[in-house]
Automatic annotation (TrEMBL):
<dbReference type="InterPro" id="IPR002142">
    <property type="entry name" value="Peptidase_S49"/>
</dbReference>
<dbReference type="Pfam" id="PF01343">
    <property type="entry name" value="Peptidase_S49"/>
</dbReference>
<feature type="domain" description="Peptidase S49">
    <location>
        <begin position="389"/>
        <end position="539"/>
    </location>
</feature>
<feature type="domain" description="Peptidase S49">
    <location>
        <begin position="131"/>
        <end position="289"/>
    </location>
</feature>
<dbReference type="GO" id="GO:0006465">
    <property type="term" value="P:signal peptide processing"/>
</dbReference>
<dbReference type="InterPro" id="IPR047272">
    <property type="entry name" value="S49_SppA_C"/>
</dbReference>
<comment type="similarity">
    <text>Belongs to the peptidase S49 family.</text>
</comment>
<dbReference type="InterPro" id="IPR004634">
    <property type="entry name" value="Pept_S49_pIV"/>
</dbReference>
<keyword id="KW-0378">Hydrolase</keyword>
<keyword id="KW-0720">Serine protease</keyword>
<dbReference type="InterPro" id="IPR004635">
    <property type="entry name" value="Pept_S49_SppA"/>
</dbReference>
<dbReference type="GO" id="GO:0016020">
    <property type="term" value="C:membrane"/>
</dbReference>
<dbReference type="InterPro" id="IPR029045">
    <property type="entry name" value="ClpP/crotonase-like_dom_sf"/>
</dbReference>
<feature type="active site" description="Nucleophile">
    <location>
        <position position="406"/>
    </location>
</feature>
<keyword id="KW-0645">Protease</keyword>
<dbReference type="GO" id="GO:0008236">
    <property type="term" value="F:serine-type peptidase activity"/>
</dbReference>
<dbReference type="InterPro" id="IPR047217">
    <property type="entry name" value="S49_SppA_67K_type_N"/>
</dbReference>
Length: 616
């Protein structure tokens, strides 16, 4: 028996060494190639086509990822994260190409664009409409259009679809996972404390379905967003209302009229201009821009390479005495402490605002918010730093992106001006407390806990049942924090406490609805927010500077090394379809349960909107 285990161990250990050696030599080979290979300059072809091919979700700020971990994931083809695309990169490339004589047309390849916030899609659509004023054509082609992809494709001069493809408007929906039965089976006790009848962030842990209040709020919100989506699309193209009404009889009428052929239905209802195979579209683009014989395709440059080809003046050579409008991006869940990009840390975000305030060239600050909220304490730390900027005479504009709700509204409330997109999801002014206790769960497997304390004021212990004193303490803290929230909004928005309470209680609003209720000052996008900041600061000539966290010298070294090395990795298709229904479901479970690990408020009190569309 001993020899068998010894033999098995040798096999396991040998396999381990082989795998480690393979990984080591892969990394070494790629690094050597990157170090000794000269970088060819990126050239923009004359009369070339700019290919807009975003791969991922449009975001205001990319989530920070350890460069070594990212390199290994890409090398092994095992990354399961949704890729991210900077909205500013997409818009900037379109704006630059409009006046670039080397660019003759724009080609939309949206097959890998993930669902993104409606206001972000609107920003790209506006850039596309502006590009068309140059007289350069925009051509879009796809095998199949999801509705968010079609939203952008509708702004093309020529919109093509594969003869075997289709376009479907399914409307907007919200699906919430519920864990009550799971927690019951695990004998985990969710301890819930809340204020506001619409504050439904805790429902997944205490129910198996949506409450009437949550359903009412969701239907009100998503109906408004869908009306906006449908209005925008039908304004871009004269589409037959049969396919946009959302009624099954209308849809089936158009579907049956096309004999069940979805591509033919898209053509007959004016969703597309023509049905084209990939080869036909490719030949048309070659005729338009010329033939790239080396690549055997049309002469083109992708938008990311196009941006990389644009030489920028090094920051050290830029003038330092110009007025600046500082932009601080607050994207992600709000948590206590310092966090990397993609998560809003109370300390780290406050530090960025403080850095902007202490710069003599800063004349105004734009806080760009894309957040469903989180820790009430961390939100307050950020708000206090905003007040310091205002006391220093620096006006602050809160610029709301896709989501600025709960804690996201908390940090916006005291801005001199709040600018939201009509489709921004905001409000959700409410508070709850949440923690899990495991006394029954541990007891079921024979584990028990007992504690000795020197006072009656014992700390919360997740291994033991909460005492009535502890429950009363947390509930009172939640109620007090809600009153603080109401007071903050009341003072900042010049509203009475009762008027704020009327539109609060966790209720969610679109930007347009929030403006009608006094929670927002102006409807607009990021550029409008910058213009508002310049107006408040009374400046005409200025630079816009994004204040970002600085990487340590070690982080910068590895980032530069592995970012350049990843260019030489073979393209992997393993696990590449993160939108597959099964992986999408698993990722949803993972993301919704991962929210709990970021609940680190010192008082276990949160202003978080679980029912809002998440930034990622």
């Amino acid at each position: 028996m001993r020899s068998i285990f010894s033999y098995l161990w040798k096999i396991i250990n040998g396999t381990r060494k082989v795998i480690l050696n393979l990984v080591f030599f892969l990394i070494l080979a790629v690094l050597l190639v990157s170090l000794f290979s000269g970088e060819d300059p990126i050239e923009v072809p004359e009369n070339g086509i700019l290919v807009l091919n975003p791969n991922g979700m449009l975001v205001e700020e990319k989530t920070w990822v350890d460069p070594f971990s990212q390199f290994l994931s890409e090398a092994m083809g095992s990354s399961d994260e949704i890729p991210e695309v900077l909205l500013s990169d997409v818009v900037d490339s379109i704006e630059k190409a409009k006046t670039d004589e080397r660019i003759g047309a724009l080609y939309l390849n949206l097959q890998n664009l993930y669902p993104s916030g409606l206001n972000k899609l609107q920003a790209v659509a506006e850039a596309l409409d502006d590009f068309r004023t140059s007289g350069k054509p925009i051509i879009s082609n796809a095998d199949y259009y999801d509705q968010h992809q079609y939203y952008l494709a509708a702004h093309a001069d020529q919109l093509y679809l594969n003869p075997m493809g289709g376009v479907v408007f399914e409307g907007l929906d919200y699906t919430q996972l519920y864990f009550k039965d799971l927690l019951d089976k695990l004998k985990v006790q969710p301890q819930v404390f809340k204020v506001g009848k619409f504050k439904a962030a805790v429902e997944p842990f205490i129910r198996n379905d949506m409450s009437d209040e949550a359903r009412e709020a969701n239907e009100f919100l998503y109906s408004a967003l869908w009306d906006n989506f449908r209005t925008d699309v039908t304004a871009a193209r004269n589409i037959n209302p049969l396919v946009t009404s959302g009624k099954i009889d209308d849809y089936m009428s158009a579907f049956n009229s096309a004999n069940g052929d979805m591509a033919k239905m898209a053509l007959e209802t004016n969703l597309v201009d023509a049905l084209r195979t990939r080869t036909e579209v490719r030949n048309e683009l070659i005729n338009l821009a010329g033939h790239d014989k080396e690549e055997d395709t049309f002469r083109h440059i992708t938008y990311d390479n196009y941006l990389a080809s644009e030489m920028e003046v090094p920051e050290s050579l830029q003038p330092t005495d110009r007025n600046q409008i500082a932009v601080v991006v607050a994207r992600g869940q709000i948590v206590n402490g310092s966090q990397k990009a993609g998560m809003i840390g109370g300390d780290s975000t406050a530090k960025l605002i403080r850095e902007a305030r202490n710069n003599e060239q800063t004349k105004a600050i734009v806080l760009r918010i894309d957040s469903p909220g989180g820790s009430a304490f961390a939100s307050e730390i950020i708000r206090q730093e905003i007040l310091q900027a205002k006391e220093a005479g620096i006006p602050v504009v809160a610029s709301m992106s896709t989501v600025a709700a709960s804690g996201g509204y908390w940090i916006a409330a005291d801005a001199d001006r709040i600018v939201a997109a009509p489709t921004t999801i905001t409000g959700s002014i409410g508070v709850f407390g949440l923690l899990m206790t495991l006394e029954d769960s541990l007891a079921a497997i024979g584990v028990h806990s007992d504690t000795v304390s020197t006072t009656e004021i014992s700390r919360l212990n997740p291994l033991e049942e909460m005492t009535e004193y502890q429950k009363n303490l947390v509930q009172s803290s939640v109620e007090a924090t809600y009153e603080d929230f109401l007071t903050i909004v009341s003072n900042a928005r010049n509203m009475s406490r009762d008027d704020v309470h009327e539109v609060a209680q966790g209720r969610i609003w679109t930007g347009k609805q929030a403006m009608e209720r006094g929670l927002v000052d102006q409807l607009g996008d990021f550029d409008d927010s910058v213009a508002a900041a310049a107006e408040l600061a009374a400046i005409d000539d200025y630079d816009v500077k994004i204040i970002q966290q600085e990487l340590s010298s070690k982080e910068q070294f590895f980032a530069n090394m592995f970012n350049s090395s990843s260019e030489y990795l073979p393209v992997s298709t393993v696990g590449g379809d993160a939108q597959h229904w099964l992986m999408g479901t698993l990722n949803k479970v993972k993301s919704e349960t991962a929210v709990l690990q970021n609940f680190n408020d010192p008082k276990n009190v949160y202003s978080y909107c679980a029912l809002c569309v998440q930034p990622r």
